Amino acid sequence: MKTTMLHCQGLLALEYAGPVELRCIAGALWITEHGCDLIVRAGERCRLQGGDKALVQALRPSHFSIEAPQSPPLRWLARWLPRLRRIGRRPAPRYAY
């Protein structure tokens, strides 16, 4: 994962083809994309849609990363797969009639 550091009031123009996920590691960022403004603080992340430029400005010294987003089905599968495996190993319940 590649990270970027911006000094206070530093400005960065991003160009990307598809959606990306920006994660603020430290500081605070002001992001403008498609005419919409968003502030992302340390520990938060946001999804940028792509296909145009986005401007990222540091409100204070900031550290952030940009990566391809993980699709929701894969996140769901990664979270539930261990539980589903445990369920598959349990014996079927026996009922008395």
Notes on the protein architecture:
The mean pLDDT is 83. The protein is elongated. The chain is built from one helix and six strands. Strands 1, 2, 3, 4, 5 and 6 form a six-stranded antiparallel β-sheet that branches. It has one helix spanning 72-89; strands at residues 3-6, 11-15, 20-33, 36-41, 45-48, 53-67. Strand 3 and strand 4 form a beta hairpin. 19% of the residues lie in helices and 49% in strands.
List the helices and strands and how they pair.
Layout: E1 3-6, E2 11-15, E3 20-33, E4 36-41, E5 45-48, E6 53-67, H1 72-89
Antiparallel strand pairs: 1-6, 2-6, 3-4, 3-5, 3-6
Keywords:
single chain, 97 residues, alpha+beta, six-stranded antiparallel β-sheet, 1 helix, 6 strands
Outline:
With 97 residues, the protein is of the alpha+beta class. Helices cover 19% and strands 49% of the residues.
